[in-house]
Structures are given as structure tokens and as C-alpha cells.
Amino acid sequence: MLGVIVNTLTVVIGSTIGLVAKKAIPAEWTDFIMKGIALCVIYIGISGTLEGENTLVMIISMVLGAVIGSWIDLDKHLNNLAGKLEARFKKPGEKATIAEGFVTASLLFCVGAMTIVGSLQAGLVGDNEMLFTKATLDGISSVIFAASLGIGVLFSAAFVFVFQGSIVLMAQLIAPFIGDVVIAEMTCVGSLLIFAIALNMLDLTKLKVMNYTPAIFMPIALCPLFDYVSSLL
């Protein structure tokens, strides 16, 4: 768990630095900077979607994920929690909501091969090198995102700890089900959600991205199923 703890701490430290630096940014620059960050998020999302090779897996994952997420209504629960936090922490004049900062940062920090492979290596053989590398990247990114999206980015450290920690602790159980193909498809679906967040940041859409997040895990079941069906044909 050392790599997970270090990664969590770098997000906390980076976010804190970003929040402090935010005070030095003129208020009239905030919206302009956020739009620039949104363009960067679009690039990250598009780059990640190219990892996938099976479009059908992506489509079915999104449909199933949307059904599950809407049934549980993850977006509502997140916004209820964020509303309580905003009442306490959000400052007047801030455009980005705590929920927006939390969801954006959580997906950016936890979607991708480095997260899954690094956590599996840490759990299976105690190799934290990849997570240490990721921690460095996340620490730098969190400074930038916290400066533009606010304190929600700091709260995403909790999600990083829970998500990566769960993979580390369950590595022995889930490793047989998460091969290179599954990781690629999970990255593809997650990156599509990152792209959706960017559209929200640009005020082009009002998608409830949190309700789609279960889609990220659907390839774990769908990829083996597709392989089995293909072997029968």
C-alpha cells in the first residue's frame, strides 16, 4: 500500500499548493484558464479512447454503465454530498463546483493503464515503481487542476486512495481477469467519460457523468464474454 499512500499524499500536497496559488490568479482570468484546462482534458480523453480496439465493447459498456449508474443515481448522491461540502468550503465567486472538481480529478487520476497495472504490481509482487511515477505526475497535475477547479480536486485524493487501494488489496483475486485487452478497453471507456467532462466544463452539455462511471468496469466481464462467443463462431 506504500505506493497508494504516496500517490494520495502527492495529490493532497499538489492540490493544496494549487489552492494557495489560486489566490494569486486574478478573478477575471479564472474562466479563461478553466476553458484552457477543458481543452487539455479533451486531448486526454481523445488520446485514451484510442487505446480501445473493440467499439462494441465500448458501446455496451456505456449502455450497461448508464443503466446501473442511473438506477443507483450516483450523480444525485455525489451532488448531495458536494452540496454539504460547498456550503462549508466554497468561496463566493467560484465558478467550478466541488462535484465538478472531484469527478474531473478522480477520473483523470484513476483512469488508465498506469493506475491498474501499477496497483496490480504493488499488490502481487510489492513493486511500487509505477505508482511512484504516477504519484509524481498526479502531484504536478493536481497543482494545475486545483488552481482552476478548486477544492474538489483535493477531495479526489480520497477516491484515489480507495480506488487504487482496492485494486492492491484484491490483486490476487482480480489479476486473472484483467489482461492487457481488458485494461485497454477500460481505459477507452473511462477516457470517453473524461471527454464528456470536458464538454461540461465548456458549458456545451450538462451530462451527469457520475452516472456513467460503472461503465468503466464493464469490460472486465464483456471482454471474456466476447472472446468466448468468438470461439464458438
- Strand proportion, as a percent range, falls in under 5%
Which bin fits the share of residues in helices? over 70%
Order of helices and strands: HHHHHHHHHHH
Question: Which class of secondary structure composition applies to the elements?
Answer: mainly alpha
SS summary, helix count: 11
Biggest pleated sheet? none
Q: What's the end-to-end separation, in Å?
A: 43 Å
Whole-number average pLDDT?
86
Catalogue the unreliable spans. Answer: none
Total beta strands = 0
Radius of gyration: 18 Å
State the shape: globular
Number of domains: 1
Brief synopsis:
By secondary structure, this protein is mainly alpha-helical. Helix content is 79%, strand content 0%. The chain has one domain.
